Here is the input.
Amino acid sequence: DGGITQSPKYLFRKEGQNVTLSCEQNLNHDAMYWYRQDPGQGLRLIYYSQIVNDFQKGDIAEGYSVSREKKESFPLTVTSAQKNPTAFYLCASSVGTSGSKGNEQFFGPGTRLTVL
Amino acid sequence: AQKVTQAQTEISVVEKEDVTLDCVYETRDTTYYLFWYKQPPSGELVFLIRRNSFDEQNEISGRYSWNFQKSTSSFNFTITASQVVDSAVYFCALKRAAGNKLTFGGGTRVLVKP
Here is the structure.
């Protein structure tokens, strides 16, 4: 059945290391997104991609990088430049960007990243 | 700039009580979309409803109902006869007609006690 998968569910990283979070969708959605959620707070947009081989910075892109080589996949790399990377990371996708059909974003189960 | 405010950080009720979650938004756009999402303890956000700015009809889906009032820029959510399974964090979000960005409120944690 269709959906969004994120792996791993829990991730531990030593300070100074880069780490890549996986996000895969089989919904045939064009647009994909990465959000960060800190305890007791709402979601903040890191990066988004409307189409393969294209992506844009969100509100808090510093210290993160992404790629969109395939429609189904949108991995997020948390680099050592990210000052406070411990957070819950959520990936989402949507059909597109125009018209009412393209507006709902559907979310994956999330990855909880802890920097030791 | 877009902004969504959920003034209630946490609401605690006893099972079968009704609970209303407030959402107030700010936007200069005339066309926009409003959403509610549920985040259970597992962490995944579950889409509940989308409302277009030009459709002010209230909506009911089972025990859930939504009251959209453009005049007061509010999009409130009511759970009728709450159940323990309704315990979650609920987010209200706003999206412009053009573009992808969702602006989220800070969320309201609902705790339903048996």
Summary: The first strand of chain B starts at residue 3 and ends at 5.
